[in-house]
Amino acid sequence: MTDGLYSPSTDIHNGRFFKFNGGGDRTIVFDLKHVSSVDKIVASFTHQSEWAVHAPQTIQVSLTEDGKTWYEAGVMEK
Predict the structure, then answer these.
(1) What is the distance between the alpha carbons of residues 36 and 8, in angstroms, rounded to a whole number?
(2) Which string of b and e fits 45-75 if b means at least 16 CB within 10 Å?
């Protein structure tokens, strides 16, 4: 998920995709272990309706320095 490599195809079974099963909201936390600057966050998604694989409708990025107080850094709407 953070190796910087992209899948050479949209085949969701090729081992290059990070997957969640089932619907609902997800929270993903990247712990950088120390205060660091974040210049950008890049995400890409695949859509394969025959496998019920859909890109998220909304992505919200929040940042924290102490793990308790979070602030919104950006939102991406589909």
Answers:
(1) 31
(2) eeeeeeeeeeeeeeeeeeeeeeeeeeeeeee
Torsion angle of the four alpha carbons 13, 17, 21, 26, in this order, in degrees rounded to the nearest 10: -170
Position 5, amino acid: L
Stated pTM of the model? 0.69
Q: Alpha carbon 17 to chain centroid distance?
A: 11
* pLDDT score of 2 more than 80: no
Q: Which two tokens stand for residue 24?
A: 């609902």
How far is residue 65's CA from residue 34's CA, in Å, rounded to a whole number? 8
DSSP letter at 49? G
